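dude i think i finally got it to work??
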Amino acid sequence: MLNDDDHSDDNPFRVSSRREIVSLLNSMMDRNQLLSLMIKGGSESVITSILEVDEDNNALIMDSAPSAVLNEHILESTKIAFEALYNSIRITFAADRADSTEYDGRAALSVPIPASLIRLQRREYFRIATQMAKPIKCTINVTREDGVVMPIVTMLYNISAGGIGLTDDKCILDGSLGTIYENCILDLSDGPVIPIKLAVRGFKEVKLTTGKTVNRYGCEFVDIGRGALGAIQRFITKAEREQNAKAAGML
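look at this
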C-alpha cells in the first residue's frame, strides 16, 4: 500500500523520466502483469492489468473491476493507488481520478499516465489482495476484564511480509493506533497455521454496499520469526503466481 514516504519529493526511488515510465508500463502490459488497484486508503481493492499505454492521450487503460458497485467507487475516488511486483521490484504509483472507457468492446478504466512512480527492489513491501474464493482468517485472542479469553475471528483483505489488512465485521477490536495484540493465529487456508503478534497501524470504519458497517485495520507483524516470515512469503509468491496464471487464462 502506498504511504506518505512514497509521495515525498525527495524519495530516492522515485522515477520521473517520462520515457522510462512509459517503457516500464509497456513492458508490464506486454507481460500481462497484474496490479493491485486500491481506493479508500486500501480498504477497497481489486486486481487489474494494463490493456494499453496511450501516450497521445496521456491515458493508461486498465481492466475494470468485476463489480459494478466497486467500479462506481473507483470512478468517484479522488485518490487511487496502484501496486505491483514486477521482476521482484515493487512498483507503485497513484492517480487523482479514473474515467470509464471501452477497450476492444468491453468496459475498461482510464487513468492518466503517472508523472512519476516508485521503483523499490524490496519484496517485503509488496502487498497482495486476498481472494474471496480463498478466504484467509486471523484469530485474535483478546483477554476481557474478567480474565476470560475471547477469540475474535477476522478476515484478511490483503497481506504482505510486513503485515496484514483485516476486517472485524463485529466491530469488537480496539482500533487505537499502536494497540498490540499478542496472541494471534494466522490461518493461510491451504498453508500452515502461524502464531503471530500484531500492532495496529491503521484503522477505518467502512460501510459496505449492504449498508452494514465494519472495521478495517492495517496491522504490522511484531517480532515475527524467520520460519513464520518464510511461510508468509511462500504464500504470497504462490498467490501471485495463481493470479498471474488466471489472468493469462491458464486457470
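The helical segments are 4-7, 18-30, 68-76, 226-247.
im so relieved honestly
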